[in-house]
Amino acid sequence: MSRTVDIPQELKTSLRKFRFARRNAGHAALVVKINKQKLIMEEVEQFDDISIEDLAEELPENSPRYVVLSYELNHSDGRKSFPLVLVNWAPTSSEIGLLTLHASAFIDFQNTADVSKVIEVREGAESFTKESIDQKLLHG
Q1: Looking at residues 71-83, what average pLDDT do you find?
Q2: Which of 7, 25, 37, 138 has the fewest CB atoms nearer than 10 Å to its CB?
Q3: Nearest in space to 56 (alpha carbons), one of 10, 139, 125
């Protein structure tokens, strides 16, 4: 299968470690970008125990990112779970060529990260809140 953007082995290893890390509190995130010149994906940063609002502030306003998020979800019956969620951070103010590249590589990245729940964020930090994520995960 031909790929538009390569996913290097070190990123695959990092994703695997992130997936299987034991967490019992808070949100964690692994942020990935596409290097347009080299056509490869690169890990930007990992955050441990970060609030959704702080994570939203860390993400660029004009550039798409893939964010693998380990999300602390509190259920109505008192249980806690930590589902993995893929946040497709694609602000409408991003350069159109980069958005196209980002969109073309999305499914490949989703399959590599092995995450089934996806949250699309196009409107930037204002639309990326704990409440909006809870709504999507708890109520479909």
Answers
A1: 91
A2: 37
A3: 125
